[in-house]
């Protein structure tokens, strides 16, 4: 292994280079499986696309993020075995791929070049992200050296993910003569990410007069979804090629190298709408979490409301109707409309559908509690009991049939605590955990444009938990349009209560919402994980103490 840097002078006539971006879905920790994925993808790229080089995502041998697996004593042995397997595979094409590499006792996030059965180049990532969902400073030392080498006659520089978001690595590679930058990525999805990437790549390529290959990971890993969307920009900052988001595949781009390394432009892709991109992220997140963790099927409570309706549609689109079970668990406050709509949803999507009343279970519990509850008035205790009985039923079905329980709470509810511990929060994966309520409505309308599976009145009726007579969410909360704006400012942008009021919101609404967010941190710590689709979800992004006396206000 060697670090290469220095000036490279293009003196040869125009040459051609065919790059294949391998947008692959790796499984964290499965180093042998990921290694075979690299080998098979490289061979396919050679056979089907006559590739000169195949570019894989960041840390593709371990999957991303490997987190504390990087601290395992056997990591080095397993990576050495993987590298030897790659060398012995006699690949007919050069590959650029990511792996953790230890050098003089320090662990680095590395990009490696394999040519003719040997590691010809090694580059160590220089900028280690340590914000939002990233903790790379916990594991990796920073690289220092620039790597520029000649590949099929083209001077190529290497960088890894965060390196391109900072000044230095690309600039130094360009100064050393690179005309093409290969950037390996494991960049997770959020609703604004692809446009941010495009703006960055346009600026970096034009400022440094280099073409850039941006190869990104695809797939779900716990709460993160990696959306692919690999891209190529030319030296003038123009998008030349873009791979689809949320899809695995091998995507080929031709370059002609003379004075500049010019990619052959491909027809532009239509950008995904917000609703389609979020919906596809949810589908991919559910599919990979379920399959990678070995669940045969999923089960969820279907209430006749919009959250469970969207969750059901996502589950079916992710796994197929034969792997999804929906259960309606009515009580005396469940409306006939909810019963009718839940059945209509289940029939439209073709899933197994059961109706199990919780009436007798509730009466039995209340009879047992009659003594200690004597002399008290009904309150949220009795409401929460209904939710907890439903949670017991769903978890029992999960145990018996090996089904993952999908919970249906949205981000607005998670924020203000409008959910029941050991009730509707009982389960393994919350599909809508990072989706605000107003966006849930938009997703329902979007899904109905594909095929109408959610009754219109589910979308138009006032939201209700139906845990008490004539109950509506907005009886005790601001309307969701207002609430979601307040929550965005407080949760995702860290505005204080006073700063939110200064934006034009009623102080009473703001202080109530902020207080509810603060006092419900203990619930969120016990909630299932769910797909992250915003810049700041309830998970790795936002880490506030449960026990604290921070006062609302400034």
Topology:
Layout: E1 15-23, H1 31-49, E2 53-55, H2 75-88, E3 94-103, E4 106-115, E5 118-124, E6 148-151, E7 154-160, H3 169-175, E8 180-185, H4 193-208, E9 211-216, E10 218-221, E11 224-227, E12 231-233, E13 239-242, E14 249-257, E15 261-263, H5 274-292, E16 297-301, H6 306-319, E17 324-328, H7 336-349, E18 352-355, H8 359-368, H9 370-373, H10 380-401, E19 403-407, H11 411-416, E20 429-430, H12 437-450, H13 456-460, H14 480-492, H15 497-502, H16 507-519, H17 521-525
Parallel strand pairs: 1-2, 2-3, 7-8, 8-9, 16-17, 16-19, 17-18, 19-20
Antiparallel strand pairs: 1-14, 3-4, 4-5, 6-7, 9-12, 10-11, 12-13, 14-15
Rounded to the nearest angstrom, the distance between the terminal CA atoms is 54 Å
Helical content stands at 25-40%
Q: Label the CATH architecture of the largest domain.
A: 4-Layer Sandwich
How many domain units?
2
User: With helices defined by DSSP (H or I, 4 residues minimum), what is the helix count?
Assistant: 17
**Mean model confidence by pLDDT:** 93
User: What is the top-level CATH class of the largest domain?
Assistant: Alpha Beta
Number of strands: 20
- Beta-strand fraction estimate: 15-25%
Structural class: alpha/beta
* Main sheet characteristics: 7 strands, mixed
Q: State the shape.
A: elongated
Strand order of the largest sheet: 5-4-3-2-1-14-15
User: Might you state the CATH topology name of the largest domain?
Assistant: Nitrilase/N-carbamoyl-D-aminoacid amidohydrolase
């Amino acid at each position: 292994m060697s670090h290469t840097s220095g000036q490279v002078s293009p003196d040869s006539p125009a040459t051609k280079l065919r790059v294949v971006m391998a947008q692959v879905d790796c499984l964290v920790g499965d180093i042998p499986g990921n290694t075979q994925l690299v080998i098979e993808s490289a061979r396919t790229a050679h056979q089907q696309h006559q590739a000169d080089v195949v570019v894989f995502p960041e840390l593709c041998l371990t999957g991303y993020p490997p987190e504390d697996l990087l601290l395992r004593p056997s990591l080095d042995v397993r990576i050495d075995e993987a590298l030897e397997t790659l060398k012995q595979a006699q690949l007919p094409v050069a590959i650029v791929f990511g792996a953790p590499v230890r050098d003089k006792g320090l662990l680095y996030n590395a990009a490696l070049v394999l040519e003719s059965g040997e590691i010809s180049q090694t580059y160590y990532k220089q900028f280690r992200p340590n914000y939002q969902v990233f903790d790379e400073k916990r594991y990796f030392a920073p690289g220092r050296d620039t790597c520029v080498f000649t590949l099929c006659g083209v001077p190529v520089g290497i960088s890894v993910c965060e390196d391109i978001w900072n000044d230095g690595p690309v600039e130094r590679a360009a100064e050393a003569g690179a005309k093409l930058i290969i950037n390996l990525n494991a960049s997770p999805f959020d609703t604004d990410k692809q446009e941010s990437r495009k703006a960055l790549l346009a600026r970096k390529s034009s400022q440094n007069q280099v073409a850039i290959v941006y190869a990104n990971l695809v797939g779900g890993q716990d709460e993160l979804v990696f959306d692919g969307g690999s891209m190529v920009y030319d030296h003038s900052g123009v998008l030349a090629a873009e791979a689809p988001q949320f899809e695995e595949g091998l995507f080929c781009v031709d370059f002609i190298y003379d004075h500049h390394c010019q990619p052959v432009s491909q027809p532009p892709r239509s950008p995904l709408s917000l609703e389609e991109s979020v919906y596809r992220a949810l589908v991919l997140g559910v599919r990979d979490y379920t399959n990678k963790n070995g669940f045969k099927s999923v089960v969820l409570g279907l209430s006749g409301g919009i959250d469970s309706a969207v969750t059901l549609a996502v589950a079916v689109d992710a796994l197929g109707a034969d792997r999804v079970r929906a259960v309606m668990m009515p009580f005396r406050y469940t409306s006939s409309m909810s019963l009718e709509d839940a059945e209509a949803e289940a029939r439209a999507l073709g899933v197994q559908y059961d109706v199990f009343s919780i009436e007798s279970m509730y009466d039995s519990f209340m009879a047992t509690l009659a003594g200690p509850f004597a002399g008290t008035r009904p309150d949220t205790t009795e409401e929460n009991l209904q939710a907890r009985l439903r949670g017991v039923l769903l978890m029992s079905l999960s145990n018996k049939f090996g089904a993952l329980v999908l919970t249906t709470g949205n981000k607005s509810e998670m924020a203000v605590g409008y959910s029941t511990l050991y009730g509707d929060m009982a389960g393994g994966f919350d599909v809508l955990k990072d989706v605000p309520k107003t966006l849930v409505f938009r997703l329902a309308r979007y899904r109905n444009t594909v095929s109408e599976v959610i009754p219109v009145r589910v979308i138009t009726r006032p939201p209700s938990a139906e845990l008490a007579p004539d109950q509506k969410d907005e009886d005790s909360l601001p309307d969701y349009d207002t609430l979601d704006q307040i929550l965005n400012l407080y949760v995702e942008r860290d505005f204080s209560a006073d700063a939110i009021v200064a934006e034009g919101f009623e102080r009473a609404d703001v202080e109530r919402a902020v207080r509810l967010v603060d006092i419900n941190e203990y619930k969120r710590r016990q909630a299932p994980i769910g797909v992250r689709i915003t810049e700041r979800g309830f998970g790795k992004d936002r880490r506030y103490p449960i026990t604290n006396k921070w006062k609302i206000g400034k």
